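Help wanted!
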Amino acid sequence: MPDRVPATTDYQAAIIEAAAGLFARQGYRGTSMRDIGAAIGIHAGSLYVHIESKEDLLHQIVNSIMLQSEQDMAEVLAQGGTPIGQLHEIALRDLRLIGENRERATVFFHEWRNLSPQRQEVVIASRDRWEDGLRSVLRRGIELGEFRAVDVRITGIALTSMLNWAYVWYSPGGELSVEQLADQYADLLVAGLRPR
Amino acid sequence: MPDRVPATTDYQAAIIEAAAGLFARQGYRGTSMRDIGAAIGIHAGSLYVHIESKEDLLHQIVNSIMLQSEQDMAEVLAQGGTPIGQLHEIALRDLRLIGENRERATVFFHEWRNLSPQRQEVVIASRDRWEDGLRSVLRRGIELGEFRAVDVRITGIALTSMLNWAYVWYSPGGELSVEQLADQYADLLVAGLRPR
Amino acid sequence: MPDRVPATTDYQAAIIEAAAGLFARQGYRGTSMRDIGAAIGIHAGSLYVHIESKEDLLHQIVNSIMLQSEQDMAEVLAQGGTPIGQLHEIALRDLRLIGENRERATVFFHEWRNLSPQRQEVVIASRDRWEDGLRSVLRRGIELGEFRAVDVRITGIALTSMLNWAYVWYSPGGELSVEQLADQYADLLVAGLRPR
Amino acid sequence: MPDRVPATTDYQAAIIEAAAGLFARQGYRGTSMRDIGAAIGIHAGSLYVHIESKEDLLHQIVNSIMLQSEQDMAEVLAQGGTPIGQLHEIALRDLRLIGENRERATVFFHEWRNLSPQRQEVVIASRDRWEDGLRSVLRRGIELGEFRAVDVRITGIALTSMLNWAYVWYSPGGELSVEQLADQYADLLVAGLRPR
DNA sequence: TATGAATGAGTGTTCATTCAT
DNA sequence: TATGAATGAACACTCATTCAT
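Answered by r_m:
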């Protein structure tokens, strides 16, 4: 029976998961390597058998969120459809990413400044590209007459704010599914509060 | 004897201001008392002539934002007017508070968990009251027919997200005044993206 | 594979011993963790691999004297015999304990107030029990007619003073053995200075 | 009206008294200049208007006990009388000195090692002279036949122990006067526990 | 005479990381 | 692969003392 998947536990992944939880709750600097070791049952020093450094742990957490959100945006833009539909899909994917990875998302938004300057730049560039993507959808919506001629920059920030802030409060396990929340947000953004 | 310079510098205030900047940029735990001392030109130990503790510094920063936002909400609710007008006023005041105190606001949103448990509870209670106030405005707007019968909880969170996220990006010194931003946010929320 | 050196040094014990010497000579507060580290050749921070805290070090020193003196008294009371014999045995054991652990005894008498309030209470209670034991022997001696009807409290304190003060001056390595000193003290106490 | 005694309160004395209490309770190193200042109602820095240094405070406290005990011994030796009478007088004066100055006595016995090496030597020399005096009385008592031919050194230490230990427990304000205690100690030492 | 501010050294303790075993 | 021990720098905070006012 060849081709077995490596039988050993993937410690790397377990460590990163433990670190994400601790970083989210206590902050990057408020979490010691001992805390992380204790969370998976080994000594602090033993962590270094599996990982490079504390900052590397942070990097992997931040990176995982960053890469997924980049890929989501790229796919939404690639698949076309109406701007309203794309807006809805962007909201859905972003809320799902944040909702299903709330600890990592919290670390992403709060702790990225603890990365090295070079890595911080990469994060900033990625965020910029994501927002560019969002604005391109808004612009196309205006061109096609689906949206009013709003200020694209501010409207983009408004939607970004609504989506990103989800890390503060949203848990998808509860009564409100990701789809329902995406529906409501998209509806609110498109239709506003005005009665018909 | 004209032209007297005020004999006493208010060191307390200067220290808090320096701390706010450093906490915002480097985080609470990433900022040492030495950093703060260096920022105002005295030794770390000398800070304690003027302040109680590092945590007290954080508390004063967090408290100043908390108290002002509570007062703003109370005044808006007290002065009445149409729900749309109140929503606009809430946005205006919150954006002004955050925009004019971006460092403190950043510390408020990122670092309050470094306060003692009791102080954290006070912050949470204050945020809850603020959101209650916002929801009461939304509810009244629906009752009066100014707004559609949206989900008050989600709509409240959406607006809160838009306003709070301003600490991440908004500087009132630039081309976009607080009034303009509040106008745009209120308009977007009320009218949505739908073309007329 | 003969001649193996014991693989592990008991650092805990070495640190406590070094601390006892330093606390006795310089006082608890006059001794820094750096002093203790230097005494055994490691950095101050490295001490914490082996110990809990500075106060814990003090506690262990104080406790060792306290527990032994409690056990000694209990054994003397349990083994019975004449009151004079018991008095002699109490003196012998106390002088041996103090003489053979002069540094720890010095720390016990001088530094116990640096323990936490709860631990101080335990020490006080232990001393009280020891003195109760001594008084019970004196009382029995009077009842049996071995001793005059002296004031038991004052006489107990007198003997306690003679024994405890040994930490100030007595080294059993010299010309005066513990047995000799106990003999002399017991004889002096029982017979007094009066010529026969 | 010249030659007035200085009207100002003698701050020196008040500071020393406050320091003695604090040193006795918290130890020399456990007492800050701020503690001492607070005890008499001025700021720490202001103490230096009246005193030289913290060590000087300690020195004055230790010195006051040392000088009085030296003078007491000198007077007892000078006034002659029977050895038993002298022993009684030594006990009386030493118990009075310690009992009426318990805080200072505590500081004397516990904190003298915090003095400079030179000052420590002076203290040691003084104690040695005092003990020499005591031994000379014992020797004369033996020569005159008032005492058995006991070991003068050990007997001297025994009496010294009984007297000095008084700082630990004796308060002359209670039911036991200095005279009564001196009587009991002298009787115990001379007559012993043996029934007549 | 007293203050408030400052100093600079020092406190006990924690930390990320290394390394021989 | 994991451990226990160690490092050396850093941490928040306190201290005795000085000094301009």
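OP: Thanks! One thing I noticed: Chains B and C do not touch (no CB pair under 8 Å).
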